[in-house]
Amino acid sequence: MSLLIIPVLIVAAATGLFLLWKFRWGPPDRTLPGVLTYHKITGFEFGGTWMTPARFASGLDHLADSGYSFIGEDQFIDTLDGKRESPGKEILITFDDGYRMLMDHALPSLETRNIPALIFLVTSYAGRENAWELPLPGRRTRHLGWDEVSDISANPLFTFGSHSRTHRDLTGLSDDVLADELIISREVIGHQTGRMARSVSYPFGLVDRRVAGSARSAGYEAGFTLFPTGRGEGVDRFCLRREGVWIIDTKSSVDLKLSGGRLFWFEDIKGRTINRLASITPFFMKKGPFD
Ligand SMILES: [Zn+2]
After folding, report:
1. Domain ranges of the chain
2. Domain 31-284 sits in which CATH superfamily?
3. 67-88 pLDDT per residue, tens
């Protein structure tokens, strides 16, 4: 009798979680191509937002073998605009933060496979270390410098978007500072690459109506978060969902995130929980160093 209570409790807890997920968020809209987000591609670091170069490369091969094709930012925006119809099973690869390590550990794997990618830069940190991140041991990482960004942008496979100027929680900034974060970063990228940023990725995925409106006014055509807060009906082009790929992910968990199988709800709750934990950072790092 007492042993029976354990499975009963597990089933009850799982049912409760599922119902909470179903009414709070529900399945996302899947009319657009899937968008994957990576951060650091590296051997090891403390934290969860990294992936080894070998697993990154084998993950790409697995997706191609599973029938996915890869599109770039322009095709994604054309699809958003209704100028292009997605045949389904398409993926846009994105990187947040724009680290220097991408040049050694990620871009060559993409280039040899002819896979496009969209890289989001924190413009005030170009060429500098990531002082905006929680200072765990071994976590100091350099961002791409402008010379490197310029070299990469010569390859038509790769485009650059804005991840703000200083990687702060945009929802907590005054209207003027918010506009600076969005407008100046967009212009600097245009100046450095000869191509104005078309997309923005909100730091920590934190966005609300005011931030989304400010991104639209700044001239962006698409705004990416990770997990939109509302229910998944319809597409808001300034609150676009992406699937984060972390070190704990497996090929099958990435499949589940992209295709939405029976256990998608569990994967979604797991991702939202990880993202909530990562959002703790802005509480420790209120001020950007360049203001
Ligand atoms: Zn970031």
Report:
1. 31-284
2. Glycoside hydrolase/deacetylase (3.20.20.370)
3. 999 999 999 999 999 999 999 9
